[in-house]
Design a protein that fits this description.
Layout lengths: L2 H5 L5 H8 L9 H11 L12 H7 L4 H15 L3 H22 L1 H10 L5 E6 L2 E6 L8 E5 L7 E13 L1 H4 L5 E2 L17 E2 L4 E13 L5 H11 L6 H30 L4 H15 L3 H19 L2 E3 L3 H8 L2 E4 L11 E7 L2 E5 L10 E3 L9 H12 L4 E5 L2 E5 L2 H12 L4 H7 L2 E8 L4 E8 L2 E8 L1 H6 L1 E6 L2 E4 L2 H16 L3 E10 L11 E10 L6 H10 L3 E5 L4 H11 L7 E4 H6 L2 H7 L3 E5 L3 H13 L4 E5 L5 H6 L2 E5 L5 H6 L2 E3 L4 H41 L8 H19 L23 H27 L4 H22 L7 H4 L5 H16 L4 H7 L6 H25 L4 H12 L5
Parallel strand pairs: 9-22, 9-25, 18-21, 22-24, 23-24, 25-26, 26-27
Antiparallel strand pairs: 1-2, 1-3, 3-7, 4-5, 4-6, 4-7, 8-27, 10-11, 10-21, 11-12, 13-14, 15-16, 16-17, 17-20, 18-19, 20-21
Helix pairs in contact: 5-6, 6-12, 7-9, 10-11, 10-26, 11-27, 12-26, 12-27, 13-26, 14-15, 22-23, 26-27, 26-28, 26-29, 27-29, 27-31, 28-29, 28-33, 29-31, 29-33
């Protein structure tokens, strides 16, 4: 890349003109522009090579669990369970479709970047103004910029008149940036390059001319497109955990098939019956309902998240949120309100705080220690000048506040409204006579208005500029001379406001003898100071505190000035003693290994670029953390894509950021992210306990058949009965378990480690114990019936129904590892209650329907038999509930260890 593209901000204009071989007045000739277009290529963002649709579809079937389920579906169909097999295949295809959709997101994000380009550009070529397609802009072209224009390429300013650009989407700067054509040092960070304009940014006001120094993929946005193409989020924690479970199940299935078949063969059993039994057992070992359960749990979580202002773009991302250990969050609009707000007022003898936030005029102006009260006269005078020396507009339309103009001036109008001063009333009572607009040299603005038959100059601007032209101050007792002591106190107040990262403005007025007076802005009466800031959201501090209690680290990454970032982070509780703040310049000097070594200590990054954000996310991931990244701008897109879960803002977010993300927050509120994390943890809990329930049931079936085979008994369950248990006893209650409400204490636990198993040792032990308990009860019934002289069909009847009743009742206990059934509440999950009731009825029905009797090999049963089997089916539930009660008697330390093992959680 040549020097003009890399360091154009640091090169003198004559040197830059020579490098670009252009004319700063006449621009390039049309012929030279055409030659460069051929040599350098069009000014557009390139898209990577497209991947064939079939190849993307094939990638969705790489998972072992997918092939295991396909095999289970085919075997189920071969055994006559067409509905069961078709349901399994439908779930597999649904999951493949979701994955196929996700593969296109990166490509769409790059396409959205391309749409940032302006369709047309106003240029000077050969001394003549032309309107050319933006794709034909080349290096050396002379750009003409006016308010409302979308910049067509990266360019260095030649001249500027009150030029301000909105660069929030690129740099994160929350306010329009003033531009000046002055050379800057080589190490100037992107957000401070005030002599450059960038592709895709918008001219907010003013005008200027600029020389194009970079086009297409060589622009700052082009660099982001390259970073975006290189970013990849990888598998989610849930996908990794499910794959590990699938591998274990595969080996367990193979072992079971071989053992059962071998034992039966040695005893001389019929080979075909043995084959059907062995394969049926293998099918029973696979929780066919698991994909359906996971999909339902995630889908219901998505539905709940929508109600909590979080829109999830991919289902696995819901659970990833629950595993989140680090949230890298933008400041503006996420942790803060997203609009400038007047927070403090200082008059020559008093200080006031302003309540309320954002554009809402609700709020009050309170003195030190006050909780209510009206603003005193000197504050009313200050805010009248703030509203009168103002070009912004503030109005209410259809119940919403509509604004137009500079964000700082809008904030002044809102503050004036809190004191009862309305812009429309002021305009009617004090007509405007003359305006001296703000400019960067004077650092002030003046509006002359008629008031009470006289002309008054209302002046606002930089404190030093206003204070230097003031000779009097307004106090509660009246106007007094501005003496040395008063001036020193005001300068100290200015320093204090600035130290709190507030933008400080000063206000003054003067009664004029003549409107044409050449000294309008001299001999002023100083009224006071206003400290403005984009303030933290009221709920953000609590959300940050909840994250800390949940073991989640919050890292603020912003394009704002370090002082502003430090103040907001400290106010929200993000930056504590011992934590570090790192500026973009210092960050750029760190090697990757150095950054990985420091990343856990840094809580705030300021003045960062798109590449910086990507490096931060990669450093956390390299340390083994699950990272969520929030953002709204084009510069956030690569990091959003790279993060374990990318979270875009719905209101202020660019299309590029939304396409690169996994989730969109519809109210741009950090508290909504924390709510989504809570949902994610609850969903994992539901998936884990449902999987435990499914596998414990399958283990009971397997152990029942294995024990009977080992002891030389006939098969206690027919293959069709095993498949019925899988469908009714396991599948339907499991779906209901997936809809369980979230525990209130879910954020009181630390996040799970990425390497934590879906089924840890404690859960596996619980599955084995529960399966053994259920199998023992069913086998006892089976053996008792045979010993009492009953035939095999009657014994199977008893074992079959007892097993089903036991599994259905156990579903109520499976809802919690620690709480007893009556503590959870029998009716807090009405779906589960209804499914268990219907399943009980179905199980009884298959003993009394001639068609179902032939299909399932069942016989009619008496009321006494039914009641006996139901009573025996309560045994596993009662034993497990007794175990929960007993664990509560353990010492405190053992309970904590058990809870940690159950959750698979720890901290780094």
């Amino acid at each position: 890349m040549s020097m003009p593209e890399q360091e154009s901000w640091a090169t003198s204009l004559p040197g830059l003109v020579r490098e670009l071989a252009t004319d700063p007045q006449r621009g390039l000739s049309p012929e030279e522009a055409a030659r460069r277009l051929v040599a350098e290529g069009p000014n557009e963002l390139q898209r990577g090579a497209e991947v064939a649709a079939l190849a993307i579809l094939a990638q969705q079937f790489r998972s072992l669990v997918v092939w295991l389920l396909i095999a289970a579906a085919l075997v189920s169909m071969a055994l006559g369970e067409v509905v069961d097999g078709a349901a399994i295949l439908a779930i597999v295809l649904l999951n493949a479709g979701l994955g196929f959709f996700q593969e296109f997101r990166a490509e769409r994000a790059v396409a959205a970047l391309a749409r940032l380009s302006a369709p047309r550009a106003r240029l000077v070529r050969g001394g003549q103004p032309v309107l050319a397609p933006a794709r034909e802009v080349v290096r050396g072209d002379l750009l003409i910029l006016d308010a409302g224009d979308l910049v067509a390429a990266d360019a260095r300013l030649l001249d500027a008149a009150e030029l301000r650009l909105n660069e929030a989407s690129l740099t994160g700067e929350s306010e329009p940036v003033e531009k000046h054509p002055v050379a800057l040092p080589v190490d100037t960070p992107l957000a401070d390059r005030r002599n450059q304009v960038f592709l895709g940014t918008a001219v907010a006001s003013g005008s200027g001319r600029a020389l194009v120094v970079a086009t297409g993929m060589h622009t700052e946005v082009g660099g982001i497109a390259r970073l975006l193409a290189s970013a990849t989020s990888g598998e989610t924690p849930l996908q990794r955990r499910l794959d590990r479970v699938a591998r274990r199940l595969l080996w367990a299935c193979l072992a079971i098939v071989l053992v059962v078949f071998a034992l039966g063969w040695l005893r001389g059993n019929d080979a075909f019956e043995l084959f059907l039994s062995a394969v049926s057992l293998a099918v029973a070992a696979v929780p066919e309902g698991l994909p359906a359960v996971v999909t339902v749990a995630l889908a219901l979580g998505v539905e709940r998240m929508v109600r909590r202002h979080a829109l999830v773009r991919s289902l696995p991302s819901v659970e990833t949120l629950g595993s989140t250990q680090v949230i890298c969050t933008d400041k503006t609009g996420t942790l803060t309100v997203g609009s400038m707000t007047l927070r403090r007022l200082v008059t020559p003898d008093s200080a006031f705080r302003v309540t309320g936030e954002g554009l809402a005029p609700e709020g009050a102006i309170l003195g030190e220690g006050e909780e209510d009260g009206a603003a005193p006269k000197e504050v009313q005078d200050l805010l009248r000048v703030a509203a009168g020396c103002n070009d912004a507009e503030l109005a209410a339309e259809a119940g919403k506040t509509v604004v137009a103009g500079d964000p700082t001036e809008v904030a002044l109008l809102v503050a004036a409204a809190k004191a009862g001063i309305r812009r429309e009333a002021l305009e009617a009572e004090e007509p405007r006579l003359r305006t001296l607009p703000f400019d960067s040299d004077r650092k002030r603005m003046t509006v002359v208005r008629e008031r009470e038959g006289s002309a008054y100059a209302y002046v606002k601007g930089a404190p030093e500029a206003i204070l230097a032209r003031s000779t009097r101050v307004r106090t509660r007792t009246g106007d007094l001379p501005l003496d040395t002591l008063s001036r020193a106190r005001l300068e100290q107040a200015i320093a204090h406001l600035a130290a709190d990262a507030l933008r400080v403005l000063a206000f003054a007025e003067r009664r004029l003898e003549r409107v044409e007076d050449g000294a309008i802005e001299e001999d002023l009466t100083f009224l006071g100071l206003a400290g403005l800031q984009d303030p933290p959201r009221a709920e953000a501090r609590d959300a940050v505190a909840r994250c800390r209690r949940a073991g989640i680290r919050i890292v603020m990454i912003t394009g704002d000035h370090p002082n502003t970032a430090r103040a907001i982070a400290a106010e929200l509780g993000i930056l504590a003693a011992g934590d570090e703040l790192l500026g973009g310049g210092e960050l750029a000097k760190l090697a990757e290994e150095e950054l990985r070594g420091r990343v856990e200590r840094v809580r705030v990054y300021a003045r960062v670029t798109a590449e910086d954000k990507l490096r931060i996310v990669r450093a956390w991931k390299a340390r083994g953390f699950v990272v969520a990244m929030t953002g709204d701008g084009v510069n956030d897109a690569p990091a959003l894509r790279e993060a374990s879960i990318g979270i875009a803002m719905g209101i202020t977010g660019t299309e590029v950021a939304k396409e690169a993300s996994d989730m969109v927050i519809t109210d741009d509120n950090f508290a909504s992210i924390v709510a989504a994390v809570e949902e994610g943890r609850g969903i994992f809990d539901n998936v884990a306990k449902t999987l435990s329930y499914l596998l414990a049931g399958n283990a009971g079936e397997l152990l029942l058949v294995l024990v009977a085979t080992l002891l030389g008994y006939p098969l206690p369950l027919l293959p069709i009965q095993l498949l019925w248990i899988n469908l009714v006893t396991d599948g339907l209650p499991a779906l209901a378990l997936a809809t369980d409400p979230i525990d209130a204490d879910v954020l009181a636990r630390p996040p799970r480690l990425p390497a934590a198993e879906l089924l840890d040792r404690r859960r596996l032990a619980g599955i084995a114990f529960t399966g053994s308990l259920t199998a023992a009860v069913a086998f006892g019934v089976f053996a008792f019936e045979l010993a009492g002289g009953g035939d095999v069909a009657a014994a199977r009847n008893a074992a079959f129904s007892t097993l089903v009743f036991a599994e259905l009742l156990r579903a109520f206990g499976a809802r919690s590892d620690t709480k007893l059934v009556h503590e959870v509440g029998l009716f807090t999950n009405l779906r589960l209650f209804a499914i268990v009731a219907v399943s009980f009825a179905l199980q009884i029905w298959i003993h009394h329907s001639p068609l179902l009797e032939r299909l399932f090999g069942t016989q009619p049963i008496t009321l006494v038999q039914c009641a006996t089997w139901i009573a025996l089916g309560t045994v596993p539930l009662l034993v497990l509930e007794l175990g929960k009660w007993a664990r509560r008697r353990l010492p405190h330390r053992e309970r904590r260890a058990a809870a940690s093992a159950a959750d698979g959680t720890t901290s780094h």
